[in-house]
Amino acid sequence: MIEANNSNLTSWIKVKADSDFPIQNLPFGIYREGSDSPKAATIIGDQVVNLDALQKLGFFSKMDLPSGIFAHTTLNGFIALGKPLTNAVRNRLSEIFRDGNAELRDNQEAKEAVLIDSDAVEMLMPVRVGDYTDFYSSEQHATNVGTMFRDPDNALLPNWKHIPVGYHGRASSIVVSGTDVTRPKGQTMEPEANKPSFGPTKRLDFELEMAFITGKVNELGDSISTDQADEYIFGFALFNDWSARDVQKWEYVPLGPFLAKNFASSVSPWIVTMEALEPFRTAGPVQDPEVLPYLKYSGDSHFDINLEVFIQPEGADETCVTRTNFKHMYWNVRQQLAHHTVNGCNINVGDMYASGTISGPTPDSYGSMLELAWKGTKPLLMPDGTERKFIHDGDRVSIRGYAERDSVRIGFGEVTNKIKPAK
Ligand code: CA
Q1: Which helix (H) or strand (E) element contains residue 209?
Q2: One domain, residues 208 and 291
Q3: What are the backbone dihedrals phi and psi of residue 198, each rounded to the nearest 5 degrees, phi first?
Q4: Which residue of 96, 179, 295, 411 has the smallest Cβ count within 10 Å?
Q5: How many angstroms from the chain centroid is the CA of residue 125?
Q6: Domain harbouring 88, CATH code
Q7: Which H helix or E strand runs over 139?
Q8: CATH number of residue 202's parent domain
Q9: pLDDT tens by residue, the chain, 423 residues
Q10: Ligand 1 center to residue 366 CA distance, Å?
Q11: Known catalytic residues?
C-alpha cells in the first residue's frame, strides 16, 4: 500500500468533493504564469503547486534531486530520474500538504511563492514527445469499424485477437488541451465518384482514448516483458486522436492511417502517475483464443476509469454524448508495451502510447462520432436543436475522466479543443 494513496488523508488546502485533484492524486504538469518561464507543478484542489519554488525553499533537501530540475519546459528530465525519485517526490508532496503538517501551511511567505490559483496559469505540453504510437485495443471499436467499413460477419480481422494492433503516429502535431484544432483538408473519394476530390474534411471526428507515457529507456534489441512494463510506464493522460474519416477511408489501404490522423491529437495537461492509479486496478476480459506466451500477464492489469465526451456547439450549452470506461479494453497496457518491444524496438522517456478509441458495449458508450451516429445514419441532437453526424466548425469537444473508490476521486481534468474552419 502506497501511503500517499491512503483514502483517509486530507489536505490543509481545501478540496471540493467533486475535484479531480485530492491529495491522493498529485499528478505532474508544466504551467506558465504570465511572462514567467515554464515550471513543473502538481495540483491540489484548485491550487497549482510550483515545484521549483518548493525545491528552492528546501522542501526536497533530504532527496538527491538535481537543482533546477523543475525549471524546465517539459517533465522529461524529471521523469528520467526514475521511479524511486519521482515516487519519493510524490510521497513528499503528500506529506507537505496533508492535514497536521505545518511546515508550509504556517509559512505565509513560502505559501505565496508556492501556490497559484489554477485559473491564473496556462497549462503547457507536459512532455516532449519523441515518438507516438496509437493502438487499436477496444474490441467493440474494432468490431464497429470493421462492420461499417468491411464485413459485419468478419468484423475483426484474423490477427486482431492475437496482436495488440497499432501504428506509429505523428508526434509533432500532439497539442495540449486548450489548443484550437484547424479543420484539415485532404483527398477523398465520394461514394459514387470515379475520381478523388480535394477540400476540407466533411467527416471530422474525435477519438476518446487514454494515453500512457513511458519514463524509462530500454536498449535497442532488448524487450520489455508484461511483468516489467510497470517500471517503464510513468503515468496516464486523456487523449483525443482527431480523425478525418473521409480522408481515412480513401487513404488507409494498404498502410493504414496517414493524413487522416496526423493533423492533430490532443492531450490533457496533467500526467496522473501509475502509482496514483494502483487502487483502481481491475481484471480485464477473458482473452479467447489464448494469447502467445509473451502476451500473457499476471494480476489486475486494467484500470477502472470513467470517461465522458462533451460537445459544445458555438453559443450553446455543452452536452454529454458518450460515457464509457477504460476497463473495456481488450488489450491492457502491459501487453501493449510488451508487444511494442518484443522485436527489440527501443522506447524513450516522454513517448506517448494511445489506447485506441475506447468504445463500451452499448451504443451510448461508443468512443467516436463515427460509431455514435453510425456513419451518419443516426445523428445526435444538440441542446441548440442542431444535429451532429460529425464535428462542426466552432464546436468545442471535451473529454473528461476520473476513477473513484472509497470516496476518493482521482481525476484527469480534461482535454478540450475548439474547431476552427479550414485555412
Ligand atoms: Ca486512434
Answers
A1: strand 208-214
A2: yes
A3: -135, 140
A4: 179
A5: 12
A6: 2.30.30.230
A7: helix 139-149
A8: 3.90.850.10
A9: 899 999 999 999 999 999 999 999 999 999 999 999 999 999 999 999 999 999 999 999 999 999 999 999 999 999 999 999 999 999 999 999 999 999 999 999 999 999 999 999 999 999 999 999 999 999 999 999 999 988 899 999 999 999 999 999 999 999 999 999 999 999 999 989 999 999 999 999 999 999 999 999 999 999 999 999 999 999 999 999 999 999 999 999 999 999 999 999 999 999 999 999 999 999 999 999 999 999 999 999 999 999 999 999 999 999 999 999 999 999 999 999 999 999 999 999 999 999 999 999 999 999 999 999 999 999 999 999 999 999 999 999 999 999 999 999 999 999 999 999 999
A10: 13
A11: 141
- The answer to whether 331 and 164 have CB atoms below 8 angstroms apart is yes
pTM: 0.98
Domain end position, chosen among 92, 124, 156: 124
Q: Ligand 1 centre and the CA of 246: distance in Å?
A: 15
Last residue of a domain, one of 124, 149, 172: 124
Are 105 and 142 found together in one domain?
no
Residues in the chain: 423
Print the domain residue range for 66.
3-124
Query: Do residue 71 and residue 220 come from a single domain?
Result: no
Measured in Å, residue 401 CA sits from the centre of ligand 1 at 17
The upper half-sphere exposure of residue 379, i.e. CA atoms within 13 Å in the direction of its Cβ, equals 11
Within this chain, do residues 105 and 145 fall inside the same structural domain, yes or no? no
CA 136 – ligand 1 centroid, Å: 7
Instruction: Measure 29 CA to ligand 1 centroid, in angstroms.
Output: 23
225 and 105 together in one domain: no
**CA–CA dist 164, 250 (Å, integer):** 24
Q: How far is CA 224 from CA 228, 297, 341, in A?
A: 6, 12, 6
Report how far ligand 1's centroid is from the alpha carbon of 243 (Å): 8
Among 324, 330, 329, 288, CA closest to 308: 324
